[in-house]
Amino acid sequence: MGIRSFLAFELPPEIREQIRAVSKELQKSNLPVRWVKVENIHLTIIFLGSVDEDTVDDIKEKATFVVKRFPAFKIRLNAVGVFPHWRRPRVIWIGLNGDIDRLSNLRDELQKELKSLGFMPEKRPFRPHLTLGRFKGPLDRDEDMKWILDRYHDINSDLYYLNELILYKSDLKPGGPVYTKMATWPLSKENLGAAP
Ligand code: ATP
Ligand code: MG
C-alpha cells in the first residue's frame, strides 16, 4: 500500500489570507472547478507518491542533509495561471516570484539525493505554484478564463518567508485529501536580517 507522501512548504498566515481573498473571488465566477480548501493550499516541492513505511526514515535523513544548506526562501504571489493551456485548463493556480532559482536548486538537490532511494527525478522544469483548484470539465466560454487571467496577472503581494519544509502524508478521502505532517525542517534564518 505505502504512504502517499510529498515534500512541501506550508504557507505563512499572511499569504494564506491573500490567497483566501483571491480564491473567494474566483469561486464567484462560474468556472467548472473543484476548489482546494484554502487551509490545504501548500507549495509542493516534490511529490513522492506511494512510499514504503521503511523508507520514510531514509527520506528524512536525505532531506535533513540537503535542507541544512538552504536559508529561508522569500516569495510573493505573482499571477493566476492555468495548466496546461488557457483554452483547455486542467488546474488553476497562483504563481510565485522571489527566490525561485533557489527553490529550484532545493528541488534538484533533493531529487539528486532521493534518486538513490529509487525516486525518479522529475525532468520537467520546476514551476512552483499554489493550486487553487482543479477543473471538473471544459470551460463554458473562453472569455471567462481570459478575463480572470487578465484581472489577476499582477497580484504583487508583499514578500513572505517560507521557513519550514514539511514531509506530508496524504490520505485521499471522499471529502478531500487529509494531510498530516510526518516531519518538519526549519530553515536556517541566519541571513534574514540582511534580506532586502
Ligand atoms: P486530490 O488529489 O484529492 O485532488 P491533492 O492533489 O491535493 O488532492 P495529492 O494528490 O495527495 O492531494 O497530492 C499532494 C500534492 O502533490 C499536491 O500538491 C499535488 O498537486 C501534488 N501532486 C500529486 N500528484 C502529483 C504528480 N503526479 N506530480 C506532481 N505533483 C503531484
Ligand atoms: Mg492529486
Give a concise summary.
It contains four helices and nine strands, in the order βαββαββαβαβββ.
Key phrases:
4-stranded antiparallel sheet; single chain; alpha+beta; binds magnesium ion; Cyclic Phosphodiesterase, Chain: A; 35% strand; binds adenosine-5'-triphosphate; 196 residues
Describe the model.
The chain is an alpha+beta fold and 196 residues long. Helix 2 (56-67) crosses helix 3 (100-115). The longest helix has 16 residues, at 100-115. Strands 2-6-5-4-7 form a 5-stranded antiparallel beta sheet, sandwiched between helices. Strands 3-1-8-9 form a 4-stranded antiparallel beta sheet. It contains 4 helices and 9 strands. It has one domain (3-186): Cyclic Phosphodiesterase, Chain: A (Alpha-Beta Complex). The chain is globular. The protein binds adenosine-5'-triphosphate and magnesium ion. Residues 4, 6, 44, 47, 131, 134, 170, 172, 177 line the site of adenosine-5'-triphosphate (ATP).
Overall CATH class: Alpha Beta
Share of helix among residues? 25-40%
* Fourth CATH level, the homologous superfamily: Cyclic phosphodiesterase
Taken in chain order, the helices and strands follow as EHEEHEEHEHEEE
Rounded Rg:
17 Å
CATH overall fold name? Cyclic Phosphodiesterase, Chain: A
Strand content: 35-45%
